[in-house]
## 1
Amino acid sequence: MINFHYETEFSLEDAENYTNWIINIIRSEKAVLGDLSYIFCSDNYLLKLNQKYLKHNSFTDIITFDYSEQKVISGEIYISIDRVRDNAVKFKEDFNRELLRVMAHGVLHLLGYKDKGKNEKEEMSTKEDEKMYMFHVKQ
């Protein structure tokens, strides 16, 4: 089950389309959907989580809490809409594409992909592009 929660003035249009896309991402990696929540929030909301749980005092676009067990994918993915908007401008990207990238990024973390080293970052970026493309393929 996938739930979308909104802690800021934002909501997904056609949430069912996003749900189907996320399910397809998980299936494409030979995993199964457990319980997954996306929480869309503000910079300040996510900053507080970052400080409390990760001991980082900086803004970020996403924090993922992984509750997966083997190939059953479960977790909470917090996304700062403020950061997504700012990064879209910074990287000269459409807001919706940047949002897809961040949403895919979170579920890829739950699927076991990392992004600490150079090779991991390259693999993550390739996977993000691959999964974003799946959104535009007819569901």
Note: DSSP finds five helices and four strands in the chain.
## 2
Amino acid sequence: MIKRFFLFLIPMLFSCQSEKQILKYPANIGDIEYDAKTDNPNFKLCFPQYIFQYFNDDNELEKFKGEKLRLDKIFFDQYKNQNIKNQSGLIRIRFVVNCKGEADRFRLLEMDQNYNPFTFDKKISEQLLSITKKIEDWHPKSIEGHSVDYYQYLIFKIENGNLIEILP
């Protein structure tokens, strides 16, 4: 009987210790936390604990003045194609738009054509990031009549350093 008690007690002791080691996790998977090295310290969220996803309504890029056609025009006019072999894949830039329509907390995710992690030449990734950061025509998202903060993203299809397509 005592043996069974100890066998039951040992896992309990270890599970209690592991709970004490848990660090702070974001409220939601995919949250973009403030990073003093890259983010604008003057960018303020209206409701930091409730940042909505772009898909929380059906308007996606209607939150951008001129919508997808204008967004495409901005990038295809400003991006200087690089013609660099073996620089193909996708670059996702994800960011937060606050309830005032201001954007910050830009994060890159780069992958090759097989969706494996990949690091693009800085002439490509930094150029796309720079253009994205300059865009000021984001509209606040409205949920039940209230302007809210939300995540937005753009995905750039790159072939040999050349911009081919912008998603979504």
Note: The longest helix spans residues 2-20.
## 3
Amino acid sequence: MFIQTESTPNPATLKFLPGRVVLEGSPREFLTPEQATVSPLAAALFEIAGVTGVFFGADFITVTSRDEDWAHLKPAVLGVIMEHFMSGAPILTTTETTAGAEDFDPADAETVSSIKELLDTRVRPAVAADGGDITFRAYKDGIVYLNMRGACAGCPSSTATLRNGIQNLLRHFLPDVREVRAVA
């Protein structure tokens, strides 16, 4: 098994590409060992000293470290990922999701639908290429609230991505959008 790695815009996060499907359906993020109990792979990755986050996309895994010392951490992460896939164990032991609730006025349903469509078709594929994900959380008074996950969470360039990329895109197509903000 050959696992490729790619750097991400976030120096604390590295993207691992095992060359196969990692997770079908919605991406999943684990920020603590307690959250990772539903995933044998995420739990094993959290056993590596320094790992502070694990994110599963459709065909990639991003791992975030407390330090940026990938020279020592990368071989251990590669070993855990390879061992997991060779074992045939599932990525998740439950299909239960922990997605946050969305908040918007029902009168804004059409605008929210357009926001989600733009995010799904124009933003999320590009963000996934960098090892992350962005999901809609709320829309109030012209402000779009988005949740940044994976390599996007804590990324030094995430503010620029929100302001110069996503905000400008949404404003171009939806004049009612005034601002885009990140939420946890």
Note: The first strand starts at residue 4 and ends at 7.
## 4
Amino acid sequence: MTTDLPVTTSAQQLADRYAMLWTESDPGARRKAIERLWADGGTHLLHPPVEARTAAARVGFAEPVLEARGYEELEFRVTRAYEEFVAPGGFTFRARPDAVRLRDVVRFGWEMVPVDGGEPVGGGEEFVVLDADGRITADYQFPGL
């Protein structure tokens, strides 16, 4: 399969592009970035925060997973995170300089940091599975420092 979109050549480049996506203020540019990063039909799977897992367990869901599939759902997910954490002006996201690739899987850490500087207030680990064109087919996010 050949596309006119750039194939990511390094794990750290992918991690940096991924983190920048979540801080993109322009909705059109955000959508284009999603389409460059994810394959059509790609998924973002989030390991829910402890509070959500505890609430889900109370009603019988032992291992809840939050999932966004396809460009529209991915766009909604990224936009909501942007609106909650970045748009008010308090925080930004950045990739840690620890990205590694093993065949079609890339692992990297990310942090949510105050825009005025200081220590990270959030973060997590990302495991992404890439297709032959270097686009994400599955994105497993594990929040927590």
Note: Helices lie at 11-21, 27-37, 50-58, 70-86.
